[in-house]
Amino acid sequence: MFNFDDFEILEYHPTGLHVYEPILTVNEKNMIFGSFCFNILKQPEYVRYLIDPNGKRIAVQGVEKKTKEAVYITPKKNGHQFGIYGMERIIEIRHMMGKFKDQERYKIKGDYFEEDNVLVFNFKNAVKCECKVSK
Length: 135
Fold this sequence. Notes:
By secondary structure, the protein is mostly beta strands. It has one domain. It is 13% helix and 32% strand. The protein has helices spanning 35-40, 87-97, and strands at 23-26, 30-33, 46-52, 57-63, 71-72, 82-85, 106-113, 118-122, 127-128. Strands 1, 2, 3, 4, 5, 6, 7, 8 and 9 form a nine-stranded antiparallel sheet that branches. A hairpin with a 4-residue loop joins strand 3 (46-52) and strand 4. The longest helix has 11 residues, at 87-97. The radius of gyration is 18 Å and the shape is globular.
């Protein structure tokens, strides 16, 4: 049997990682929904993106069937993240949602509504990420 007498518990919590929270990361070129978002949405094959410019919110809903509004997100990928890409579209969304500084990265924690399988992210709650943004 191993002797634990000389050992102490090492307190460690990863910084910058929100593995157990639905997090949306917003930068100049894309908006990335973290892998926990994929899991909490029940690992969907398709999602629908919804925007509320007046309320400064964006939502993502996991859906099972392809529709005109649904986007395929390749669910078989490991460590699954998905997002909205394209600088022009991101600039438009960032402008609609608030005054975000260029070359800054922001994180927003989402709220999950199980009955509709939707995550809602309020841009009013965006927090500047202290991590470096690669160019």
